[in-house]
Each structure stands twice: as C-alpha cells, then as structure tokens.
Amino acid sequence: MKRKMKQFIGILLFAAILSGLSSCYSTSIEKPDKLIKKDKFMKMMVDIYLVQGYNIDQKIDTIHKKLTQTDLYYSVLKKYNVPDTVFIRSLIYYSSYPKEYEKMHVQIMDYLKEVELQYKPQEKIDAEKE
C-alpha cells in the first residue's frame, strides 16, 4: 500500500513537471500560502535532476537495489525539510509563469553543466571540443 502511494506521488510529480514544461501561456494560479523561495526551489530542482540521473548499479548491494526514483525524490524533500504538497504547489505556481520558469530552468541547466565539467575527465572535455 505504501509503495503504491509512493508510486502515485512519483507519477503526480512527473505530471506536474510535464505540465509546467509544456505550458505555453500564463495562467492565473494563486500564490500558495507556503511558497518555497525561488532560490531554495532552484536548489531543490538541481538535486531532483541529479537524483533522476542517478543510475543505480545493480551489483552494489541489496539496499541500493531497492531504491526507486520516488525514494530519491523524497530524500531531496527530506534534505530541504519540505513537504511534498508544498513542493508540488510551488512547482505548479512557478511553472504557471512560463517565461520566468524557463529562465529558472536555464540557470539550473547552466549550473548542472558547470558541475558536470568539474567531474568529467579532461580527456573527454578535450575530445568534445574537437
């Protein structure tokens, strides 16, 4: 039962992100009472993108085998001490302003590219430039 609820929340988050990215016009969404501040929200989104890209090596151990994307998502919420409902409402609010949301998304992607360059071997960076 608990696992199904986690899967449902994961699907709900995916739908919210998808609707935010695909919205073409501004809607009149009321500002939530507990809106996550923009800077904190962007940091959370960075972490969510990182956990989405986290590839669990099935050979590691049984604990990691049981991790799901939903578990990783909830670990980000726990890290920032934010309830899932507050995060989803903030996501819906910010994504209802597509131009602003796109600017936020560009900043998030730029940050992730910087982080990638820090950890990518120099040989791969040089090969990509050629």
Automatic annotation (TrEMBL):
Residues 32-114 form the DUF4296 domain. It comes from the Bacteria. Keywords: Signal. Residues 1-28 form the signal peptide. The keyword Cell inner membrane does not apply. InterPro entries: DUF4296. This is DUF4296 domain-containing protein. It comes from Aquipluma nitroreducens. The lineage of its organism: Bacteria, Pseudomonadati, Bacteroidota, Bacteroidia, Marinilabiliales.
